[in-house]
């Protein structure tokens, strides 16, 4: 889960490597909505919600395993 989230939200490496506008990742596209003098907050928030949806879906699918892994070391017995 943490690896997926780190790869999904990766910004610095993608910004450094990707040169083509067609290959931009979602965090880079969201950053482009922020201008020097004005920010289009409606577009930023809408794109952020769209970016969060796959993370929530992956969490819901693997929720049982995620919680079980977190609690396995905390329970005596």
Shape: elongated
* Topology order in helix (H) and strand (E) letters: HHHHH
Number of helices: 5
Helical percentage: 55-70%
Mean pLDDT: 82
Derived structural class: mainly alpha
Give the biggest sheet: none
The proportion of residues in beta strands is under 5%
The end-to-end distance, rounded to whole angstroms, is: 26 Å
The gyration radius over C-alpha positions equals: 17 Å
Low-confidence stretches: none
Number of E-state strands: 0
List keywords for this structure.
77 residues, elongated, mainly alpha
In short:
With about 80 residues, the chain is an all-alpha fold. It is about 65% helix and about 0% strand.
Give the topology.
Elements: H1 2-8, H2 12-17, H3 26-32, H4 41-61, H5 63-72
Report on this structure:
The protein is 66% helix and 0% strand. With 77 residues, the protein is an all-alpha fold. Helix 3 (26-32) packs antiparallel against helix 4. The two termini are 26 Å apart.
């Amino acid at each position: 889960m943490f690896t997926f989230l780190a790869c999904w939200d990766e910004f610095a490496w993608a910004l450094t490597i990707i040169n083509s506008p067609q290959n931009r990742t979602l965090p880079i596209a969201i950053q482009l909505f922020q201008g020097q003098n004005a920010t289009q907050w409606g577009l930023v928030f809408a794109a952020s919600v769209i970016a969060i949806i796959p993370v929530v879906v992956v969490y819901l699918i693997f929720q049982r395993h995620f919680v079980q892994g977190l609690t396995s070391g905390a329970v005596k017995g």
